Amino acid sequence: MNSIWAVVPAAGSGRRLGGEIPKQYREIAGAPLMEHTLRALLESPDIRGIVVALDPSDRRADAIESLSDVRVQTTPGGAERADSVMAGLELLAAQATEEDWVLVHDAARPCLPLEALTALVEMARHTREGAILAEPVADTLKQVDDAGSVMGTVDRASLWRAQTPQLFPLFALRSALQQCFEEEVIVTDEAMAMERAGQPVHVVEGPSSNIKVTVEADLAFADLVLRKRGAQ
Questions:
Q1: Are 28 and 17 in contact (CB under 8 A)?
Q2: CB 221 within 8 A of CB 115
Q3: Is 210 within 8 Å of 112 (Cβ atoms)?
Q4: Mean pLDDT for back-to-back runs of 10 residues, the chain (232 residues)
Q5: What is the pLDDT of residue 60?
Q6: How many CA atoms lie within 13 A of 175 on its CB side?
Q7: Which one-letter DSSP state was computed for residue 25?
């Protein structure tokens, strides 16, 4: 592993949260949500640089102070998350070496602690294989049919809820995503693309506070986490 880069897909509109302002620009704990996300990544000495994939028609990004950091670049994002990730990888491919790695982190995960990010990097360096932050499933899971009737209880012992960042060899991830595009397979995270390519993926337990903001209640929770962390 040589350098580690980061890609942050941030071209989405946050339709599930609603409102006129995309969720990555909603203010929490005194700053736009995405500002907190970028600060968390820039805090790590392991990350050489960051590419943020943005909607080129959205001028709200001008208010994100961290985008002016010399370690941060921007690129036009795509219609879907995977398109934005690929745009970031293509930009980095012209600058990186075959030994470089890349981590992908959701713009709407502002509460990433440095300790979790460091643990992820250490796992990848130790195994020389891909790794993701994830959380063991704690709830009882039910399998339900189309009519809404419970068919059974799913064994949760081996189930984990994927988080980000997700860290992989840069060129291997680009190739895996390209294969998914060619086969018209919709991937919901980078690990899924690497799994389909037959690449190993390890999990590193991430904190439950490392949530992805999806609904209004998540904004309040993230605001509380960040204000508490700032007070400490």
A1: no
A2: no
A3: yes
A4: 92 62 87 94 96 89 90 92 95 94 96 96 96 94 92 90 96 96 93 96 96 92 90 68
A5: 86
A6: 10
A7: G
- The pLDDT score that the predictor gives to residue 16 is 54
Alpha-carbon span 121 to 118, nearest angstrom = 5
User: Exposed, middle or buried by CB within 10 Å (0-12, 13-18, 19+), for 111?
Assistant: buried
pLDDT at 19: 59
pLDDT the model gives residue 44: 96
> Distance from CA of residue 89 to its chain's centroid?
14
Tokens of 193: 């693309």
Q: How far is it, in rounded angstroms, from Cα 15 to Cα 18?
A: 5
- For domain 4-231, say whether CATH 3.40.50.300 is its number: no
Residue corresponding to tokens 């981590």: 103
- Residue 103 contacts residue 124 (beta carbons within 8 Å): no
Report the run of H or E that residue 173 belongs to, with start and end.
Answer: helix 170-182
Alpha-carbon span 82 to 194, nearest angstrom = 13
Structure tokens at 112: 């990433």
Name the residue with tokens 């790794």. Answer: 131
Domain spans of the chain? 4-231
pTM: 0.90
CB 207 within 8 A of CB 117: no
CA distance 94 to 115: 30
- pLDDT for the residue numbered 229: 86
> b/e string for 188-198 if b means 16 or more Cβ within 10 A?
ebbbbbbeebe
